[in-house]
What we know:
Shape: elongated
Radius of gyration: 23 Å
Largest sheet: 6 strands, antiparallel
Strand content: 15-25%
Strand order of the largest sheet: 5-4-3-8-7-6
Order of helices and strands: HHHEEHHEEEHHHEEEH
Number of strands: 8
Number of helices: 9
Distance between the termini: 34 Å
Oligomer: single chain
Structural class: alpha+beta
Amino acid sequence: MSEGNAGNHSQTVIKALDVLNSLAGAGRPLSASEVAKLCSITRPTAYRLLSTLASRNYVRSDSDYNYTLGAGLLALGSAALDSLDLRSLAQSHLEKLSQKTTESVYLATMYGNELIVVDHRTGKQPLVRRQSLQMRPNIGNRVSLHSSGMGKALLSGLTKDERLAILNTLNLTPVTDHTITDRETLKQNLDEAAQRGYAIDDLEGDPGVRCVGAPIYDYQQRPFAAMSVAGPSHRMTLERISEIAQDLLEVTRALSREMGYSG
């Protein structure tokens, strides 16, 4: 039997995790009886699990024997956060998306009022259509927020107030003839991106290149990175972008969950 087979899972551990999840989701202290009901276990089993967890400070109880999460979980949570490496977690997702779309895929994180490319995968189809048309952002390259699919995607993941605050600080320098430089037009563009879940760079960041980007969220429920699929406009038509966007959203949502996002 494989390690992932349910037959190898410890039912006691699973029940203990269910207990912790029930306390985490309750929003108030719970009695052993309430925990038992939520976890579909007997009261003696619930009490035994709660007592064991309390002995390791993962659970604590008040004078009325109502239980809440304990401080011991903070150390585990901190260690888990320290071990999260976006680039490592994203590798398989980048490969999957690049293979499925046959286009180039990019990953970037926020850095001030810019993004920095931290990884990418080159698609099976070339980005070059002619000598003057090429898009080769390397790892470490900076990407503007207002003219890139990833930048606009990250902005669209913020609240309206946060988005507007950052938008008002940006220097909307034109990168191509299609770069949006009017603040109100860009605001509307970002509002539309927020509604559909992804942003489109329509020849705005590189002549002849279109890309679609989506935000990646962390455990604080905040957008902190973005991923995009890019290609020459003759392949990346607006119709095809709407199809690729669904594959992109599937990947970014999975990666967000791996980073602790629960939205």
